């Protein structure tokens, strides 16, 4: 997961706040809370663990916990059937904060208990994503989907930069434990803020049988299985490389200060710029052709890191690979 998923909007009711700025402001707040845990796991943890001497293969196995963000669909019906979206969002953020605080005091000792706590952190974050997406679908009008998606992506990316950039740089002056606790406090603040967001009407409850029946009907549609395979596999190489890229930065001699203040902002602006270029290309050539050509271009990122390693991990080439 490198950006929040896009979902169709169902439109707000008359009871919801009408000013667009107010609704978009809350979308920004919620996606800051959604992107912060993901940035901690995907960008901060690898740098922290590798800087502490944890083996690369151990970090790679730990990265397998990220599958919870893909498997969240399995428990997403519970968010609709039990309670409201705001309590789920606030509760998930509290869970993330509690787990991150426990990790901070445990230190980079990758024991079974450490893995369990990190797993709880990831599951809480994935559950929050479900509730945030559902809340956003309910408050965005149909003609606001494009601008709302821009707000979501920017807020999500900024949160990832705070966790994987500013927080990493801060570790040059503060102990890692203090940095992780500060991030936990930020999550608690966002949890409190979530309780003051506009409440949404509960959607009509559906039985689990109807949900599975809808999924089965979709799978029987022509081309459904190849489409599902593309969705699941298209970004797999980049997703697999995600956490290992940051361990590569550390092994190449980049300091936490340099990673946080220079490399992380570079990747933030490159990602936003790439998204803009991709949007323009898809508008001109269509989605299928866009997926084909951009999928080929996507491979350049892995090739760039191979060249960086072949070059002796020179800092300039490593930074250029990060930009690619």
Radius of gyration: 20 Å
Kindly report how far apart the N and C termini lie.
18 Å
Major beta sheet summary: none
Strand portion, in percent? under 5%
Amount of helix: over 70%
Task: Say how many strands there are.
Answer: 0
Number of helices: 14
One letter per element, helices H and strands E, the order comes to: HHHHHHHHHHHHHH
Average pLDDT rating: 84
Q: Structural class per helix/strand content?
A: mainly alpha
Judging from the principal axes of the Cα atoms, what is the shape? globular
Structure write-up:
The protein is mostly helical. The protein contains 14 helices and no strands. Helix 1 packs parallel to helix 7 and helix 5 packs antiparallel against helix 8. The longest helix has 32 residues. It is globular and about 55 Å long. About 3% of the residues have low confidence.
Describe, in short, the structure shown.
This protein is mostly helical and about 325 residues long. It is built from 14 helices and no strands. It has helices at about 20-50, 55-65, 65-70, 75-80, 85-105, 110-140, 145-170, 175-195, 210-220, 225-235, 235-250, 255-285, 285-310, 315-324.
């Amino acid at each position: 997961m490198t950006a929040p998923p896009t979902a169709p909007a169902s439109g707000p009711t008359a009871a919801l706040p009408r000013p667009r700025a107010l609704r978009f402001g809350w979308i920004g707040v919620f996606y800051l809370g959604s992107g912060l845990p993901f940035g901690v796991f995907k960008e901060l943890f690898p740098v922290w663990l590798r800087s502490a001497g944890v083996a690369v293969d151990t970090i790679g196995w730990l990265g397998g916990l990220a599958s919870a963000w893909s498997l969240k669909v399995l428990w997403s019906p519970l968010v609709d059937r039990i309670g409201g979206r705001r309590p789920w969002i606030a509760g998930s953020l509290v869970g993330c904060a509690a787990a991150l605080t426990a990790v901070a005091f445990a230190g980079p000792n990758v024991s079974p208990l450490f893995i369990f706590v990190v797993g709880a952190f990831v599951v809480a974050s994935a559950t929050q994503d479900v509730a945030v997406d559902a809340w956003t679908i309910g408050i965005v009008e149909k003609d606001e989907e494009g601008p709302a998606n821009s707000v979501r992506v920017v807020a999500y990316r900024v949160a990832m930069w705070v966790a994987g950039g500013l927080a990493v740089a801060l570790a040059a002056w503060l102990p890692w434990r203090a940095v992780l606790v500060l991030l936990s406090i930020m999550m608690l603040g966002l949890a409190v803020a979530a309780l003051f967001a506009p409440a949404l009407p509960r959607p009509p409850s559906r039985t689990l049988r109807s949900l599975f029946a809808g999924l089965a009907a979709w799978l029987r549609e022509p081309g459904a299985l190849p489409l599902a395979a593309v969705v699941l596999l298209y970004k797999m190489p980049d997703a697999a490389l995600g956490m290992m890229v940051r361990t590569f930065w550390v092994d190449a001699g980049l300091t936490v200060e340099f990673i946080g203040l220079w490399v992380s902002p570079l990747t933030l602006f490159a990602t936003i710029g790439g998204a803009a270029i991709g949007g323009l290309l898809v508008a001109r050539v269509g989605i299928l052709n866009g997926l084909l050509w951009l999928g080929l271009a996507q491979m350049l990122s892995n090739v760039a890191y191979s060249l960086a390693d072949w070059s002796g991990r020179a800092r300039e080439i490593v930074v250029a690979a990060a930009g690619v």
